Amino acid sequence: xxxxxxxxxxxxxxxMIAATFSFLWPIYKNKxxxxxxxxxxxxxxxxxxxxxxxxxxxxxxxxxxxENINNFANTEPQDIEKWRIVRFGFESNKDxxxxxxxxxxxxxLKVLLWCKxxxxxxxxxxxxxxxxxxFEWKIDQGKDSFADRVIYYYEKENNEWRLVGNxxxxxxxxxxRDSQIGIQKTVDQDYLNWRKSPLSVLRQDxxxxxGFDINRDPFKPISRDEKKGKIIYQITFNNKEVWNVILxxxxxxxxxxxxxxxxxxxxK
Length: 268
Prior knowledge:
By secondary structure, the protein is α+β, with helices and mostly antiparallel strands. It is built from four helices and twelve strands, in the order ααββββββββααββββ. The chain has helices at 3-36, 58-67, 177-188, 198-205; strands spanning 84-91, 97-103, 108-118, 121-133, 136-139, 151-157, 160-166, 170-172, 219-225, 230-237, 241-248, 260-266. The protein is elongated. The N and C termini lie far apart (87 Å).
């Protein structure tokens, strides 16, 4: 047989194979799909991997932690049956790593929880415990793994938990009730008298990282409530960021009451 005839025969064979494949493939594909959908809808495949907690279940998780908060504290609350939760902090936009701040009218504590959803049931493990120290949170042991992450804060308003901001535009200054009372007693004994001046507290307690210079950075009081013992200063740091700094008198109101910074809110 001549070479060109062999080539023609091979081409014809390839065309026939391709035609046969294109004819049979849809039939085989449908059969494969039938096998896929033949599994009953309610069949549960057991797995040891927990489901990720989705945003829509965040409030269910908050409720679960509220109900079980005593299990995550190292000590029992004083004078009350259950610790009162002050604030939740969710790491980034996930619901796995949660900071929980709680108090009992004496102490103020914070824990970092790692939570998962196993078969529609929440399970949380305590990773770290924190205590207030010089208006910052001090970890008991180890390192705070999420210190550089964005934390989304939730607080209770009108009996509902609401998002109030995140760590890029909101700062809190933790101090327990017992510590507030201790500072007031110290001032009553004629020590730390500068704490009776909100402006002095602003200068002393504003975090060093902001580089607040009272002689350089523009600032002004924008709100003051004598009865509630609260004042808000607006500061422009380094001619860039504008923050509202909220100070309050936790124990006594008026001239003899000490001032502390409650929080800072970024304006722009």
